[in-house]
Amino acid sequence: MNPYFLVTHSGGFHADELLSSVILTRLFPQARIVRSRSPEWITPGADRIIYDVGGKYDAAERIFDHHQRGAPLRDDGQPFSSFGLIWKHFGRDYLAAYGLPASDIELVHASFDTKFVLPVDLVDNGALSPAVAGPLAGLTLPALLETLKPVFDETDPEAEDRSFRDALAIARHFVEARIGQSAAKLRAEALVHQAIVKTGEGRVLELPMGMPFRPAIMKAGADHLLFVVHPREKDWCLTGIRRAEEGFELRADLPAAWAGLTGGDLEAACGVEGATFCHNGRFIAAAKTREAALTMAELAVREAREAAE
Description:
alpha/beta
């Protein structure tokens, strides 16, 4: 039975029940959110899902609290917040409702849990301090969502519920954007893999458009690739491939003679008509046409191989 009510606690709100509400309202748009601590609301019933309140975790009864003694832990011993519990039980259905292919759901569910849900769980339980982010501590998602709460001397009795609704809309954008990015990365991975197969032993990977490419290159073990070429809105882009996820070191830099040049100066330096730009950092360049971009790429490959010999 679909719930008529989504019940969470009244008073000040936090990221975990806001983000839980994002998931549940997508799955049960007809249900009404009730923010209350009254026994008649936080007692399990067939017409409701209760989360972040109620002092109990029982998926069969559809109550998902984490504040009680013996609160649920993940397999690795890390604590759940209500968000983690809701994601565990409803996340896959949410992804299906979002429109993800069935083949991608498990991968995206696990990735989102690790990179988005778990940090919220840890902060909510005091197992992780936002202070680890240093000067960015106040810009973490839990901190930003809590800035949307009413100020301490707000006298309007409707202010908290109104602020919760406003914050819910904002939280929804963050969740949907992150899921959308994860889904897009998987689509990109498939396209990049196809391009890698087509390229064979070539050193320049040509893609049909700009997209995330490094994860697929690493997954394929395509260590021979040095540069990527793809069209942009009005020109073509030539870019290097980073050696590691962290840092900016490339497998090969663009030629030093091109650094910081544009237009005719770059054309003269590389001998390619249509070359338009090379970043001073030598990690990206541009050209007017595909042919020009590919020619620049082959010149860059030749110089990189000569430097390595």
